[in-house]
Amino acid sequence: MNRRKMTGDGDEFFMQRCLDLAERGRGDTSPNPMVGAVLVHDGQIISEGYHERYGGPHAEVNAIDDVDATQLRRSTLYVNLEPCAHFGKTPPCADLIIEKKIPRVVVAIRDPNPLVAGKGLRKLRRAGVEVKVGVLASEAARHGESFVTFHTKHRPFIAIKVAQTLDGKLATVSGDSKWITDEAARAYAHQLRSRYDAVMIGTGTAAADDPSLTVRLVKPYGGRQPKRIVLDRTLRLPSGSAVFRHDAETFLFTSEKLAGSRKALRIERTGRFGTKVFFVKESNGALNLAEIFAALHAEKILSVMVEGGSVLFSSLIQSGLADKAHIFIAPKFIGGDGRSSIASLGLTHISAAVRLRDLSLGVIDDAFLIEGYF
After folding, report:
1. Are strands 44-50 and 36-41 parallel, antiparallel or unpaired?
2. pTM for the structure as a whole
């Protein structure tokens, strides 16, 4: 039990604590959301909890557990996402709140999952619980951006990760790109990988760099291994490529024209840790991105970080599928014959330039990190 006095605007102070707690579950709760819960009695936090892992107890359960029944009946429960009202791997949290006779619940945002979508709030109100919704709503929606995007846009949240020079190059004319950034920036990139459900690359990047796409760090700097997604329209990658080895699952997307081919069957058969092959339509000589992300949605992939290459980046931007960018910029120049980090977007006027918003700027050793939203 954790007692803590309020030092600021009451509801916002306690909701911020919920978000801080929820963050502890990052990388471990998907496809469930990250949720924190705080119980407050007489202006003090008397208990708190968060959703620690997929399949485990929800945040509300962890906060309510072992608290005296008399205190619960005079307390306020804060939670950054609407309490669930359906049976899943655990019973409904709304029912537990009602059973424990907690008189007031403060929620940041409604749950966008159609299985909940206001049902938890209605159940609480019908039981006589005072419910307040909307405290730190924008902060909570941003914190839960992957879960919100998954359920509102019916696709994963998509971020691109670029490592480039000051003049916007990700490789020399020969394709050499090791290493654009230094070790500190690369270590942080591994932390980023651990925050996403999956990491995606195109065939060019896979062939040029033969990356494993695994997280080579341990907690607290790296968590579970993300799934690896490779787009290989013609199945030109050898079955011995690094993305088909090492301790992570691989999803391989290729053209529907190759369904049943010996190559596809061989990759599925020889994939050491289990390679799943998806066959999708082609569009203008490339794999159909909308179909790819629909398939990933069906696989319950909430978030994807795309690590290359330039053609894939530009396709995502042009199609409006890119949500966020992590751009590492090393203090180096390659020159005009180097390979640009973003391929042509077909723009003829500067007024049509794609702009990032809600920017943040950091420095990692001698590299800049610009993050923003499309």
Report:
1. antiparallel
2. 0.89
| pLDDT at residue 9, as a whole number | 60
Burial track 238-256 (b if 16+ CB lie within 10 A, e otherwise): ebebebbbbebebbbbbbe
Query: Exposure string (b/e) for 27-47, b if CB count within 10 Å is 16 or more?
Result: bbbbebbbbbbbbbbeeebbb
User: H or E element: which one contains 138?
Assistant: helix 137-143
Residues in the chain: 374
Q: Judge whether 52 counts as a catalytic residue.
A: no
Choose, from 60, 82, 307, 371, the residue flagged as catalytic. Answer: 60
Phi-psi region of 358 (alpha: psi -120 to 50; beta: other; left: phi over 0): left
pLDDT in tens, 118-148: 999 999 999 999 999 999 999 999 999 999 9
**Both tokens assigned to 264:** 């596809």
Average pLDDT, the chain: 89
β-partners of residue 47 are 39
C-alpha 262/C-alpha 284 separation (Å) is 25
